[in-house]
Amino acid sequence: MRMTIFQARNTYRMLRTFHLPNVIEAGCDEAGRGCLAGPVFAGAAILPSSIDHPLLNDSKKLTPKQRQEARAFIEENATSWAVGIVQPDEIDQINILKASFVAMHRALDQLQVKPQHVIVDGNRFIPWSNVPFTCMIKGDAKYKSIAAASILAKTHRDEYMKSLSDAFPQFKWNNNKGYPTKAHRAAIAKYGPSPHHRMSFKLLPDEIQGKLF
User: Fold this and answer.
1) What is the model's pTM?
2) Domain ranges in the chain?
3) To which H or E segment does residue 106 belong?
4) What's the topology of domain 5-164?
5) How far apart are CA 146 and CA 144, in angstroms?
6) pLDDT in tens, 64-109
7) Looking at residue 210, what is its pLDDT?
8) pLDDT value, residue 205
9) What is the 3-state secondary structure (H, E, C) of 4-72?
10) How distant, in Å, are the alpha carbons of 162, 178, 194 from that of 175?
């Protein structure tokens, strides 16, 4: 069930601005890890202590319209923000878990202000640039900077997948964004994979995938 603005405000009040006080802290999160097609995206965000918005929350709890509103606010008001990308061919080479960390590193590399501490959504991370980090399970529902990173990653990835859907309308990426929906798998079975599919993933049941490609 999607949140109303009122529910978002109440949830927002529970989010913390920082994990460690008096340091420059960046939040990181990824989007698209479970998809069959398209890159994995990661967001990184450093926020000012005074930042305030009722929709600054876990991107999965927001509607597409709310995410776009929150993204515009973040991009205008963050101290620094960036998005990192790892394409499908690289995902196939290094695996999706490492690709998620690489995408986060690429986002952090682009920040105009270097953080002194990084907080990451999840329970694992590869150290970046000798900067201390803390992993946070469900961190996007606990810290504003991780929530901002999740919104950036999700909205930029959705936008990218919509742009690809014009050239590959059969996969309906404008709707499923590359996730393994029934219609997406049926299109792969009918048309075969595109150059944007992750060939290391189980696109179809083994007995079907082995016969087709």
Assistant:
1) 0.91
2) 5-164, 168-212
3) helix 96-110
4) Nucleotidyltransferase; domain 5 (3.30.420)
5) 6
6) 999 999 999 999 999 999 999 999 999 999 999 999 999 999 999 9
7) 60
8) 77
9) CHHHHHHHHCCCECCCCCCCCEEEEEEECCCCCECCEEEEEEECCCCCCCCCCCCHHHCCHHHHHHHHH
10) 8, 8, 17
